[in-house]
């Protein structure tokens, strides 16, 4: 959605390695914002974005406007039955319908062979993979690793909303995931205990309001109680008015 940072640019570098022609789309998609969310205030700087993409060797930048993708009397949306009803989809019920719809439209317009998505938005990545498989789209979806700032905070355009005073609270997302990884490494398999530890770390800051903390199956997103196999730990936390997400894979065999 633009306002590019190093996390976005890392996706371009993956794409540059696998494809002959590299296309980036920039579009702040109104269909994935619910009432009261930050569509109007979402950070935008197209001129800077274009300079950064040029430096990364991007061949084509597709920057449609709302009227081109959602003209008058637009009626068609894509909904998935299961995956959106977990994690972010619970508190943002329109979000993944908007994501799936706009991504399908971008695929139809650009006709890519490969598409790169960041693993920070793990649920989104999973939903796009499922949509591509279910609708027989001839596209390979590539997941790229989370890129973090020096203090561990996962890079996000919304990090720009944070004040210096809120930064310590924002770091608790990464600290919680790091603690969970340590617990699993030390033999803890009880997901409830791991979630409770994360909750304690985050709740130490009054600025932090937990949306969800979950340990779940990395393919179905169904909650798991015992970590006998690799499991996804995902969390969403509001720091002041800024909603941040992060995740990691907890692997008991690692």
In brief, what are we looking at here?
Helices cover 36% and strands 17% of the residues. By secondary structure, it is of the alpha/beta class. The protein folds into 2 domains: 6-144, Rossmann fold (3-Layer(aba) Sandwich), CATH 3.40.50; 157-249, Pantoate--beta-alanine Ligase, Chain: A,domain 2 (2-Layer Sandwich).
Model description:
It is built from nine helices and seven strands, in the order H-E-H-E-H-H-H-E-H-E-H-H-H-E-E-E. The protein has 254 residues and is of the alpha/beta class. It folds into two domains: 6-144, Rossmann fold (3-Layer(aba) Sandwich); 157-249, Pantoate--beta-alanine Ligase, Chain: A,domain 2. Helix 6 links the parallel strand 3 (114-118) and strand 4 (140-144). Helix 5 (95-110) packs across helix 6 (122-134). The longest helix is centred in the middle third of the chain and has 16 residues, at 95-110. The chain is globular and about 50 Å long.
Write the layout of secondary structure elements.
Elements: H1 6-18, E1 23-25, H2 46-55, E2 60-62, H3 66-69, H4 88-91, H5 95-110, E3 114-118, H6 122-134, E4 140-144, H7 167-170, H8 172-185, H9 191-203, E5 208-216, E6 231-239, E7 242-250
């Amino acid at each position: 959605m633009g306002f590019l940072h190093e996390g976005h640019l890392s996706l371009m570098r993956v794409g540059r390695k696998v494809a002959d022609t590299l296309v980036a789309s920039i579009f702040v998609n109104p269909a994935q914002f619910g009432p009261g969310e930050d569509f109007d205030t979402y950070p935008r700087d197209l001129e800077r974005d274009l300079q950064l993409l040029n430096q990364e060797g991007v061949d084509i930048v597709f920057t449609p406007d709302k009227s081109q993708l959602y003209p008058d009397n637009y009626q068609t949306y894509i909904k998935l039955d299961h995956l959106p009803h977990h994690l972010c989809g619970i508190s943002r019920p329109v979000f993944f319908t908007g994501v799936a719809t706009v991504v399908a439209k971008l695929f139809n317009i650009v006709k890519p062979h490969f598409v790169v998505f960041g693993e920070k938005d793990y649920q989104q990545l999973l939903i796009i993979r499922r949509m591509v498989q279910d609708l027989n789209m001839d596209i390979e979806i590539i997941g790229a690793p989370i890129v973090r700032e020096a203090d561990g905070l996962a890079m996000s355009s919304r990090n720009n909303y944070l004040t210096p005073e809120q930064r310590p609270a924002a770091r608790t997302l990464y600290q919680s995931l790091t603690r969970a990884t340590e617990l699993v490494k030390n033999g803890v398999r009880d997901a409830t205990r791991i979630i409770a530890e994360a909750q304690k770390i985050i709740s130490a800051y009054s600025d932090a309001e937990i949306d969800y903390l979950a340990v779940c199956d990395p393919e179905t997103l169904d909650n798991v109680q015992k970590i006998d196999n690799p499991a996804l730990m995902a969390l969403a936390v509001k720091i002041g008015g800024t909603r941040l997400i992060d995740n990691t894979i907890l692997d008991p065999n690692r």
